[in-house]
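Explain this record to help learners:
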Amino acid sequence: MKHPFLILIYCLIALVSCQETNYSILKTSLKDIPNNHRSVELFPITEIYNPSDIYSIGDYIVVVNNNKKCNILYLYNRERMSFSRAFGLYGRAGNEYLFIDRSPKPNNDSTLFLYTDYINCSEFRINRDTIKEINKYRITNDISNNVIILNDSLVFNRTLQADHAFSIYNYRLRENQVSFGDFPDCPIKPKTDADRDNVCASSSVYNSDQRLLVTFYESLPLIRIFDMNAYKCLQEVELIDVHKQISSLDEYYDDKNVIYFSRPIATRDRIYVSLIDNQADLVPEQTSLLAMDWSGNITDKTGTAFFSLCTGEAFNDIAVFDLIRGVFPHISGRINSRFTANIIYCQPGIIC
């Protein structure tokens, strides 16, 4: 070999070229985003002591309870804002559930879809003050995070201890279709793959019409938009005027890290996400609800303590949009003997 150094230089150039960012980066200042304020209606409820999610299904609101000693689903009549009934129990019996997570696909006026028992999609029919499971089918091959049903055969999920951040699983053929996405560089430096999965934890939403996936990172002020035809990142959105992440790995596991994004909800036109921008073990006095279009432009924000989402034992606040009617129900409260919960309504199509 006559020119080993030339070959080495060529290899280095090729390696650097492969690692170059091939997507656009949009740096966004929240100071430039309009701030909206709306009055709300409060409807106190007393049946739930550890809510984890809330859905609007037809004429009803369904709240998922995370207290393993109580029923799972609590049904409220939307018009009267009154409690109707509770359904389901946690456990290992045939009619019980080990685990309940967020809806893996859009719901409709009568059906609620939930990711259950770590591997299944369960369909619940909501009708005349009753809840009934009408179907259940396996959609993952193992315990998965952030499961989203893309179509009648493919499922997206966030990987665990893998080379890529995300995976597409074909649940009809029961095989992995593709893995994609790198892990962003986080100021909290991981020591193991499990650490990396934790500090780079994210929540994604999907637009089936545009074939776009938008990912929000918990410990980074970062949003990524992926083209799900080519499985590649199209754009990064970075918030530039938020608290800096300066925590160590030990501080992360002690809940001393900054939490940024939490629980995004998607409609056909916009995405809504809670921006915490505060330390994980602290109750923030005020957080923001952001509205963003599918191109990565943050269009509105609402600053209010009602949109707090805290991971400590003292508080657990949840927010979700009615994807059908544009209404925003919200539930919040303390998880202790003085628990008081409220369902809050805003005008249709308007951020509170």
